[in-house]
Design brief:
By secondary structure, the protein is an all-alpha fold. It is built from two helices and no strands.
Length: 94
Amino acid sequence: MTVASLVMWSVWVAFVLFLTVLYIYRSSLSRDEEDQIFLDDSFEQEKAAQAVIAAKVARIEPWVRVARWMVVVMSVVVIAYYTRDILQQLNIVH
């Protein structure tokens, strides 16, 4: 294994771990989120708690999207690296 492939795999694993942590954090936040509408004013406390949860989930969502794209890009880099390596082994590309 070359240094380049070791670095490439390390970066890919770091991105996947970051995405996994974000998914776990988002799911732990949204675990207490309820899909209901509070029509009565006596439920203001529950409505406020749900608004806080929704705000936290909305704040983490851009990070999830960026991390997902970072994993996709690094996956394409890994595939391209090994495709090029295979083509070089077959003497198709020099």
